[in-house]
């Protein structure tokens, strides 16, 4: 019997327009009405994740930044796992030498050193993946991240690292140059106490070794008196694998990367076809969504 459902956001719960479909929303609310815990497990910051959920009328606990931060349904922080400052400085310096664009997620928000590059890089990557969406519409959405304070600009990442009250949760790099990403990955692998994953073909995500969705989800369900066997998890990419591998009912999205589909036997349809909602209805009712 399923007592907890954990879902990734990008490429999973959200469609290509970064929205929660009506069927997905209804399925989540249906599950919650049955007394089932629903938790988001995302690479996003809490604010970015919660903003989308609130607009759809969904209130739930959130595992943010790949497990570096856990918040309860009231939005209170109940767990964190940051990257040591010295390690963070080493990672940032190494990536800077490769001239690769990066953003830093912290307990005080998300930061970039380059406002214009932040917009141009993300627009370029997102438009390549979603050519049907006009570039200007994407640009407007990305700029909205700054307006809403989801991402802030600093002159130097050293400002963040010198703040004793600021915990570095995650460092993410973006590049369409796969050779550059491969070089970055190879360089980072020499470092200890970090976990390197990805949520897309054009990025790398660096966390503390213990900041993983699987570890955070295990802690979450344990706090609720639920076993992993009684837990369902839905995802599409490498940063979802740690939770998909440990739950009793893992589900890979129809649009999941091939490596995830090979490991996870249960598949649902794509994120643009209400994959999350259909998977929830199927497992809870034994019937396809109406």
TrEMBL record:
GO terms for molecular function: magnesium ion binding; phosphatase activity. PROSITE patterns: COF_2 (PS01229). CDD domains: HAD_Pase. GO terms for cellular component: cytosol. Keywords: Hydrolase. It comes from the Bacteria. Pfam families: Hydrolase_3. NCBIfam families: Cof-subfamily (TIGR00099), HAD-SF-IIB (TIGR01484). The keyword Hydrolase applies. InterPro entries: Cof (IPR000150), HAD-like_sf (IPR036412), HAD-SF_hydro_IIB (IPR006379), HAD_sf (IPR023214). This is Cof-type HAD-IIB family hydrolase.
């Amino acid at each position: 019997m399923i007592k907890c459902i954990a879902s990734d956001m990008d490429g999973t719960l959200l469609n290509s327009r970064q929205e929660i479909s009506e069927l997905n929303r209804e399925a989540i609310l249906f599950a919650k009405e049955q007394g089932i815990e629903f938790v988001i497990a995302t690479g996003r910051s809490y604010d970015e994740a919660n903003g989308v959920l609130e607009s759809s009328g969904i209130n739930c606990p959130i595992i943010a930044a790949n497990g570096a931060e856990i918040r309860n349904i009231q939005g209170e922080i109940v767990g964190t796992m940051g990257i040591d400052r010295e390690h963070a400085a080493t990672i940032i310096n190494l990536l800077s030498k490769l001239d690769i664009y990066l953003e830093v997620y912290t307990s005080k928000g998300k930061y970039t050193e380059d406002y214009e590059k932040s917009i141009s890089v993300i627009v370029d990557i997102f438009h390549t993946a979603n050519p049907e969406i006009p570039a200007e519409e994407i640009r407007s959405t990305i700029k909205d991240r700054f307006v809403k304070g989801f991402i802030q600009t600093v002159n130097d990442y050293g400002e963040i690292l010198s703040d004793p009250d600021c915990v570095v949760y995650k460092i993410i790099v973006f590049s369409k140059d796969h050779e550059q990403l491969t070089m970055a990955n190879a360089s980072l692998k020499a470092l200890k106490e970090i976990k390197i994953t990805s949520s897309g073909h054009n990025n790398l995500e660096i966390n503390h070794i213990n900041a993983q969705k699987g570890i955070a989800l295990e802690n979450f369900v344990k706090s609720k008196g639920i076993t992993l066997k009684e837990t369902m998890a839905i995802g599409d990419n490498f940063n979802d694998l740690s939770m998909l591998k440990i739950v009793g009912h893992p589900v890979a999205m129809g649009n999941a990367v091939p490596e995830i589909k090979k490991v996870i036997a249960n598949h649902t349809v794509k994120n643009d076809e209400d994959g999350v909602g259909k998977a929830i209805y199927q497992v809870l009712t034994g019937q396809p969504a109406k």
